[in-house]
Amino acid sequence: MPQSFNALYQTTCSAQAYELALTMIDEVFAAKYCFVGRLNSHGTHIDTKAFHIDGTTQPNIQYALDCTPCADAIESKDVCFYEDNVAALFPDDLMLTELGVNAYIGVTLRDVKREPIGILVALFQEPQQFTEVKQQWFQDLAFIVAAQTRYDIDIDKKNRLVAELSLRNIVFEQSKEAIMITDSENNILRVNPAFELYTGYRESELVGRPPGILSSGRHDAKFYERMWQQLKQQGHWRGEIYNRRKNGEVYPEELSITVNRDEDGSISHYIGLFRDISDWKESERQLRFYASQEPLTGLHNRRSFLERVEQHISLYRTTKSPSSLLFLNLDRFKDINDLYGPEVGDKVLVAVALRLQNSVLSSDVLSRYGGDEFTILIVDSTPEQVLFCADNILSRVCQPIRLGELNIELSCSIGINHIDQDVDSATVFVRNANHAMLSAKRAATENIVVFSDKVEGVYLRKIQLRDKLHKALRADELDVAYQPIINNITGRITKFEALARWHDAELGTIYPDEFIAIAEEFGLISLLGQFVLNRALADLAAIHGHGYKSIAMTVNRSATEFNHLLHPVEHILSALETHDIPASQLTIEVTESVSINAQNQVENQLNKLRAHGVKVALDDFCTGYSSLSHLIDVRADYIKIDKSFTQQILFEHKHQVVIASLIKIASELEMEVIAEGVETQEEQAKLQEYGCHFSQGYYYSQPVPLDKAIDLLHRYNN
Ligand code: C2E
Ligand code: CA
Ligand code: CA
Question: Structure pTM?
């Protein structure tokens, strides 16, 4: 069934549209009678605008609404229908009996204010079953017909106006703006037709009376005082004003009043120009709505949220009513986006927004602050209550989300900042909550952190390190240490892992776990990566110079480096060329999480590198995303078992099983396994028992400077 309505949009006049609508009813319903009717201005009669019997066009008719099913339909907001015996239900509607009508379906046509303006009806001699699909179709059709009817009514009005105006003259008569002229005493002399239209008053009702008759009562005496004062001083006033129509309706308008003076300078008239701005006001309201809403979730946007917080802070200064700010960030949201696509990402955000809405009170202010960040202003609550609320939010948000076949696991980090004397602006209030959130993100065990001096200290150190790292990178003050990787069959060193080292004169040694994160966060990682790569390859050339020509180098790369650099692959290849190192002697280590998404652009770059002969290692395997089945999709030369996992090999049966299977599967898939963090002879023995290809760890050596690395080669490889 449902027929497409497209053709209706292509009709050129209303008569044609109505005809087509009835033809469609004939086709879908095979009605005995059907018609489009317009309600007369008193609401008592229907004048048909198109009328069909048995599918053929008939002359139009007029009928009284009273006691007919149409009268009921006019009242009804939805589809009004009777499937059988309608004539018996409306015994006073003689026409129904006369026409032998048994079933009825009708929908009221309404104007933009939802007032009835007409009706679309079909009548049947046989009993009918109006299924939901049929009702919906009929209602949709009526919706389009109503639009046409509204248009007709507008045109009729305009035509009437033009007819009247042609009888009168001048701008005054034709103006779209309502005009009122008062005498020097401010009594009404004349008003134009537009004015009559807007206000509902006839000119004859107004002449001789003061304009106060239109007053809405919304403006106080001061408002009018100021208006008159300006009129007297400047001869002109313009502003927005609420007036009242004859029917009592208050409406906003733009009013401009000009003083007209005689030749002698005394006031002869006031001329008032009105423009109804209700529509405009409505659009303004909507605009304001959109301006303050984040379109995806319907929550406050950042700007509107900050405004609310700002208001709250000034209130706090007098009321001292406690409040807190929650800053929530989804963990690994980017992975969800990368893995399932942005549409799924959007659905997740909407679902989270809904969960948050269900977790707070309506007096709290909730915003999507940006990306996967949400902020909540919790008002009138003690720190204990806020913590309880945050716990509740955490457990709700961390429920898996089901989207069709997908089951998406979620987690998040929450930072809390309680208001106090020191909070002097919304941005500081939010910023500190954000810092607390970041510290929750860094912490392995906590998902909720309350802002404190300690959190602030961490933040300050971060900023300090960022600045120092920047300087150190420019001044070439970083170092690279080398940790040997041992071939478990030969017992010889096959390669070194290059690890960045940083010693600051003031702060001492800063460890990569701290400064790599900072470099990533503040966009310094590419600079750092290039430095390490160049230094490592230069040092490898030196190692080769000592006669150890088969030694290879492995270098860490962050995923962000692949995304930041314009030509990440070309950079690496040109460094190899500069130092005259064969591509096969370089391995690039990326963490396992990076390659989880097969379409990921990082993966593409890695494949390009492999095509050039560069090797790829998956670092930190068995953490976070570990899944043996994932191995099948992975295209890498080496898998590196994370040190946290290696170090359990003697104690945890589970770990033993995983490591043994990993080595077996990887070998079958032509990948080799490197165990990291090997510290003891026992661990090394176990790994060898499982057939692990390579080992790396303090058992053999700490990461050491180049000269020490060469000493190690003398020891192991001679
Ligand atoms: P990673 O790539 O997993 O590097 C191995 C880390 O384990 C190194 O820490 C190393 O010193 C340490 N390690 C080696 N053997 C043992 C052992 O037997 N026991 C224990 N407990 N630890 C051992 P490091 O040098 O502090 O580096 C930490 C992380 O920083 C690295 O983890 C790597 O992810 C990152 N990193 C280091 N240098 C760079 C770099 O140049 N670029 C990038 N993007 N990341 C780097
Ligand atoms: Ca590594
Ligand atoms: Ca690792």
Answer: 0.53
